[in-house]
Amino acid sequence: MSDKILIVGAGAIGGFYGGLLAKAGAEVSVVCRSDYDIVKQQGYRIDSCDLGKWRFMPEQVLQHAGDYRKDADYLILCTKVTADMDRVGLIRDAVRPDTAIVFIQNGVEIEAELQQAFPDNQLVSGLAFVCCNRLQAGEIRHLAYGRLMLGNLPAGISAKTRHLQQLFTQAGIECVASEDIVAGRWQKCVWNAPFNPLSVLSGGLPTLAILRQQEALVRRIMREVRDIAAACGHPLNDDVIETNIQNTYAMPPYKTSMLLDFERGHAMETEAILGNAVRAARRQGIACPTLETLYALMKLRELQIRSQCP
Amino acid sequence: MSDKILIVGAGAIGGFYGGLLAKAGAEVSVVCRSDYDIVKQQGYRIDSCDLGKWRFMPEQVLQHAGDYRKDADYLILCTKVTADMDRVGLIRDAVRPDTAIVFIQNGVEIEAELQQAFPDNQLVSGLAFVCCNRLQAGEIRHLAYGRLMLGNLPAGISAKTRHLQQLFTQAGIECVASEDIVAGRWQKCVWNAPFNPLSVLSGGLPTLAILRQQEALVRRIMREVRDIAAACGHPLNDDVIETNIQNTYAMPPYKTSMLLDFERGHAMETEAILGNAVRAARRQGIACPTLETLYALMKLRELQIRSQCP
């Protein structure tokens, strides 16, 4: 019998990974709000840089998780993590005792909220290294990368997580399982913490220009994140900074997700990426003056955006 | 016989103070480039919040300092201090052996360039605490404040500086003389270093909003400037931060000069205000992580502005 999967927050990322799971034979339904009408009628058209083009017709297209009439084996949450997003409220009505709750989201220390709300469910933390855009309602373009990393909370890899990993692998996407996914989340933050805010605060520079002009600043930020991760009990590999620097030089110039949100007037993941890192540092008694400054500046930038709104 | 004064860079600040000196009976000429035609014809119309309205007809209106045919008692330089401004070249041809060179400009550690070029002249460092706008060519509005601080380099107060102070005082503007004007410059930087870059990097917030939202950040920046000043041999008063914070809460919300330059697409005084402070810290072996971050961000912002230009 095929796996029953419910994707909540089926925009570019959720639609893309949901479409892959459907390709792999799972019974995939979606909750999507803004594009509901189009997706309900036509499903998604997905155009991938390396996995072909296909149409993804979800089993059910829903406006609310509570409308899902089955017992999900996996509920995969793919929204952004912003202050106005009630992640628990979004999924609560579709969570059954056997539902594994998977969240493919950015940021550090975003686990507690879900752990507290669903103490008896399997919780799977996921990271996507992917470049996906929503072109218009129901149209997704997969531009580059795609690797997923999954792992259970607080640590380890369950059989159910292994199974999900296999489904993604069958669909042709690289998916690795991690015994310490919390460390993986910090590791991703080593890249996100400099490039996301710097792209916004610079007024829109792509990654390569930032790195070329201010490599020393980027390295300082990366070191602060690495030190916070270690203080939180998740030491990262010694080469984590060097690898991130070299990879970014090798990447094509790239607009970060925070910059795209900024340009579109959407809420930014400031708290998930910067605020939570700064709070972890304060809790551990670690100084992170550069992150503190970036965080304060992003809060000022957000205040300015709000003050411009009618 | 009246004092012969040449103002170089006679925009809002230079025109305003030049107009005051003319009121006090000095023979004031100006070098102004962009508004030359209008000022040559009509002089300046100055509208002050507390010193009335008057027309200031300069003795001579010139396009180049070298066109000045007299021996200036005082040459007062009032341009911005930006990378593309050759301060020495602007004034060299009008400097005579007895000319006191006065610069009323923003920033720290901006003295050396002039000291090296004119080792035998009296050098007077000046700070203006004033809010003046150029409304259009030849029209200046004085909005608030106006206090001047003058002092000789490397320190002390000469008779010639006292005399200039008296001229300003006669004209109705508060003018104090300082035995340690270099400390005065650092003291002004305690305010400039946070509010100027934060106003730009926040996307345009006025001073009060910045302070209300991020007082802790503002205080961190102020402490770093205070510590650099002390390391450079210019310890500031213990209450310098508290006074600046309270004064800023009491001021009407204010757009900084750097924000005005930014909005008008003009060069910003990033190096004079931030870069020089950071370099002084590095020279003294003092850490200033917040200033380092602001400075790097301003350089990224400037890079982004240049990359937008055709």
TrEMBL record, chains A, B:
<dbReference type="GO" id="GO:0008677">
    <property type="term" value="F:2-dehydropantoate 2-reductase activity"/>
</dbReference>
<comment type="function">
    <text>Catalyzes the NADPH-dependent reduction of ketopantoate into pantoic acid.</text>
</comment>
<keyword id="KW-0566">Pantothenate biosynthesis</keyword>
<dbReference type="InterPro" id="IPR013332">
    <property type="entry name" value="KPR_N"/>
</dbReference>
<dbReference type="Pfam" id="PF02558">
    <property type="entry name" value="ApbA"/>
</dbReference>
<keyword id="KW-0521">NADP</keyword>
<dbReference type="InterPro" id="IPR036291">
    <property type="entry name" value="NAD(P)-bd_dom_sf"/>
</dbReference>
<feature type="domain" description="Ketopantoate reductase C-terminal">
    <location>
        <begin position="180"/>
        <end position="301"/>
    </location>
</feature>
<dbReference type="InterPro" id="IPR003710">
    <property type="entry name" value="ApbA"/>
</dbReference>
<dbReference type="Pfam" id="PF08546">
    <property type="entry name" value="ApbA_C"/>
</dbReference>
<dbReference type="InterPro" id="IPR051402">
    <property type="entry name" value="KPR-Related"/>
</dbReference>
<comment type="pathway">
    <text>Cofactor biosynthesis; (R)-pantothenate biosynthesis; (R)-pantoate from 3-methyl-2-oxobutanoate: step 2/2.</text>
</comment>
<dbReference type="InterPro" id="IPR013328">
    <property type="entry name" value="6PGD_dom2"/>
</dbReference>
<dbReference type="InterPro" id="IPR008927">
    <property type="entry name" value="6-PGluconate_DH-like_C_sf"/>
</dbReference>
<feature type="domain" description="Ketopantoate reductase N-terminal">
    <location>
        <begin position="5"/>
        <end position="154"/>
    </location>
</feature>
<keyword id="KW-0560">Oxidoreductase</keyword>
<dbReference type="InterPro" id="IPR013752">
    <property type="entry name" value="KPA_reductase"/>
</dbReference>
<comment type="similarity">
    <text>Belongs to the ketopantoate reductase family.</text>
</comment>
<protein>
    <recommendedName>
        <fullName>2-dehydropantoate 2-reductase</fullName>
        <ecNumber>1.1.1.169</ecNumber>
    </recommendedName>
</protein>
